[in-house]
Each structure stands twice: as structure tokens, then as C-alpha cells.
Amino acid sequence: MSSLFSALNIASSALNVEQAQINVTGNNIANVGNANYSREVAQTSPANDTQYQPGQFIGNGVDLTGVQRQVDDALNSRLRSSNSDASAASTTETWLGQVQSTLNALSGSDLSSQMSTFFTGWSNLANNPTDPGQRQVVVQNGQDLANYIQGLDGQLNTLQTTVNQQLPQQTTTANSLAQQIAGLNVQIVSAQGGTGGTDNGLQDQRDADLSQLSQLVNITTADQPNGSVNVYVGSEPLVEGQTNHGLTVANVTNSAGDPAPTVVFTDTGGTVPVTSGVLGALQGVGAQIASTTDTINSIAQNLITSVNQLSASGQGTAGFTSVTSTNAVTDPTVPLNNTSSGLTTPPTNGSFVVHVAQADGTTKSTLVQVNLNGTGTQTTLNSLAASLNGIPGVAATINAGQLTIGSTNAAAQISFSQDSSGTLASLGINTFFTGSGAGDIGVNSTVVNQTSLLAAAQNGEPGDNSNAVAISQLESQPLTGLNGESLQSSYQGLVNQIGNGAAAAKTNATATQAVQQTLTAQQQALSGVSINEETVNLLQQQQAFQAAARVVSAVQAMYVSLLAAFGGT
Length: 569
What we know:
- It is a single chain.
- Helix 2 (73-103) runs antiparallel to helix 11 (487-527).
- By secondary structure, the chain is α+β, with helices and mostly antiparallel strands.
- The protein has a domain at 2-70 and 531-568.
- The radius of gyration is 41 Å and the shape is rod-shaped.
- The longest helix has 61 residues, at 132-192.
- The strands form seven sheets. It has a four-stranded antiparallel sheet with strand order 5-6-7-8, with helices on one face. The protein has a three-stranded antiparallel sheet with strand order 11-15-14, with helices on one face.
- Helices cover 52% and strands 16% of the residues.
- A hairpin with a 2-residue loop joins strand 14 and strand 15.
């Protein structure tokens, strides 16, 4: 009788285990299209044998020892790293491509072409400096160039704004995933309860969140004995057990001394060592766009300054009866080179000449000293106006920080020359451009309204072309403000830098995607569900279940026969 009971127990264990294996196989089949599911395998082992008689042992069936996820932690770690790299490369490629498109270097109508057209206009004017038509062309080319630079600056600022908006949005998503991982840690530790088993469903959810997080930021993980996982960015902990240290964005001063949107830890405010993923790419691209904008602004500033310095010391075919500075001085009582003056390009110690031409053809020239050497009485806007008022035939007034210089005789005309101090250009008197940079560059309305005031001469003669020649040569002239580069070479250097960066980003994106695809294929080969394989397993398990059921039927028949035999006696 005991042997029959043993046989029945063996068959019963087989039925239970095969039923469990069929459930596992059915669960695999149900998740065949679930990318976040890891294939499960039922783990079995023989039950402990029973000694039948001395030296002879008979097995007691089979035990279900566990249901194991088919995962490789080392492979998953490599895949998460490749996710970060691929996402960073793809994001960088996208944004640098947009910067490259904004510069439009291959179109024939980029900033380089616009500057060439502008300076060529001055060169053509030098061939016929009294031609009013060519003067109008120079002014129009200047307006086109100014409008183009403003538009370019606006487009770059729009890109910068979009990146700056995306960074906190993506950081919020990363923080939510980190919070979910911390919550899943709690659930996994509670569910497993130190039993040594694993809650495969919760583990899959956590792996899916880790995979998504790795696309946003470079992470590494460390499994803990209680079933939780710690998450690190670089060497800094982001998730420790049930604690999420949090991610947010704050303005942090960069190496250039400028505030830049930066990913920081919510609890400490410390900078997160983001090097890859979408967040790393957005931070890097944001810095590159800012650098590009700064370069365009620097080119615009040097264009304004260099052209205006020559224009301010030149003369047109006519003089001024009255001219007002385009740049206002914030405090007319401080030296003009003091930061409190509010001038973008402060003047230096030197002088300039004022010419007053009378209707009878006589001209009186007066040297105006600008003392800004730090010794003695320094030149302020008020004192400069006083000096100008001391010149016969000249009246100077200040209104809201703007200096107006006019002749006291309507028939007399005023012109300027030899400004070694840069005062006229700094104030915006007798200048071509207005504004302080790419965002507000424009053409002085004085020359727009009266092109005869366009300063093509340097000696006061209408037919002189010296200033037009000098301005036309600025295109390729090394400038101190551009570290010895010319306007054109500075721009070409920027175009080359962005082009090389975009090409490198494209190559990197292709390479990282190839690595990611290879690792994903390896991971799916291990963890993915094959419907063909599961179908074969299901058939084997079905046959095993049926065979175990036949054992039960056989034992049952034997038991009935045995009872009948005993009952018959």
C-alpha cells in the first residue's frame, strides 16, 4: 500500500510541476510582444530519494524550485550604457544640424556672402565716391546686412530657448523615472520578504524604467542583497533604496562666468555629472548654441566698431548742420570711459578735429582734446559739450544723455576727422551703424535719410575715396577684438567648427546606434520570447502532464484492484 501511495505522490508532484511549467509557458506566450518582459523558465529539481531497502533508493518525483527570469545583468548594464550614448549622439546630431541649417553656409546667401556684398559696395563707391546711386547701394547693403545679422541672432536665440525649455522637461521625466524606481525598490523588497525568491513582474517593471532612464542620463546600477537596486550618475547616487535624491534644473555659473541651465540634485543642489543621454546632449548643445550666438555677436560688435571708427573720422560730400549721437550716456558727470557712463565701447585718451565750413568757402578746424588718461580732469559728456561750445560757430547740447552738435549758422556745415580717441564712434556721431551687437545692429538713420553724409572721404574733398577704400578692406583685415582674425575668417572658423561638429555627431550617432542594435539583439536572444520555442515547450509539457495523469490512473486502478483483492478474502 505504501508503494502505491508513493507512486501516487510522484505522479501528483509531476502533475503540479507540469501545470506550473505550462503556466510559465503560457505567460511567456502572452507577453510575446512585450519589449519590457523577460522570458521566464521554471526551475525544477528531483525530490529527495527514499531508501527502499538497504543500499537501494527510489526517487520521490520532482520539485519546483523557482521561476527564473532569463536576464544577464552585465549585458543589461552595457545596453543601458549604449542607450545613453545613442540618445546623446542622436540628440546632438539633430540640434547641431539645426544650427548648421541656421547658418546656411552652403546657400550662397549666408553671413559671409552678406558681408562680401556690403564691403564690395564700399569698394565700388571708392571708384566713384560722388555717385549718389552707389551711395544708396552702400546704405541698402548695410541695411540688408544688419537685418540678416538680426535675423540670424533671433533664430539662434529661438534654438537656445527651445533647448532651455526641453532640458527641464526631460529632467522632470528623468526625475519621475527615478522616483518610480525608488518606489519599485520598496515593492520588491516587501514582496520578496527575504525569501530568496524574486518578483519577476516588478523586476521587469524596474528594468524597463532603468532602460528609459538610461536614455536620458548616463547611469550605473548596483544590486543590493535585499532585492533593491541603487542607481548612480557617475559616482553620485541618484537612487538609494527607497530614496530618490531627485533631479532638477538650475542656472549654474559656467567656466566662462555665465549662468547656464544645469542639471542638479534636488536635495543638495549639487551639479549632476551628466555626460551622456538626452540631458547630457542638451546641456552640451545648449553650450554650443550659446557659443555660436556669442561668436555672431562678437562679429557684429567688431563690424559695428571697426566701420564706425573709420566713418566717424570721415566726411561725406556734404557736412552736418546738426547731428545727434545715437548712443546715450547714462551719467554725463562721470568720465566717458567709466563703466557708469553706459557706453558699450568706451573711448580712450586722445582727440578729434571739428571742421566748420562757412558759406564763403573758408573752413576753421579745431582740435578737441579728450583726456581719459587717469591724470587731471577727465573728460565727461558735460565737459565735452563745454569744449565744443567753445568752438566758434558750434553749439552743443545734451538731452537725455544724447549729445547734439550743430552749427550756429544755418549756412555753415560741420564735419569731423582724426578721431584718435574713438569718442565720436563711441557716442554714435558721424557713424554708419547703430546698435551694440547682433541683436540691435542697424544703419544710422542720418545716412539713410541723407546719403551725401556717407563718409567716403578722409581729407574733406568730395572726390576723395580714402575712407571708402579703408572700410572696404575691413572684410579681410585682422581685428584685435577677434583675436587677430578678420570678420570673414572668424565667421568661416565658426562655420567649420559647427560643420565638423555636425559631421562628427552624425558619425557618432551611426556608430552608437549600431552598438545599441547589436546589444539589443543579444539581449532579445536571451530575454525575448520565441513563439516557436514556447510552442515546442508547451507540447512537451502537455505530453508530460498527460503521462503523469496516466500514472495516476494506473495507480488508481491498482489501488482498486488491491482493495477488491483484500475485500474478496
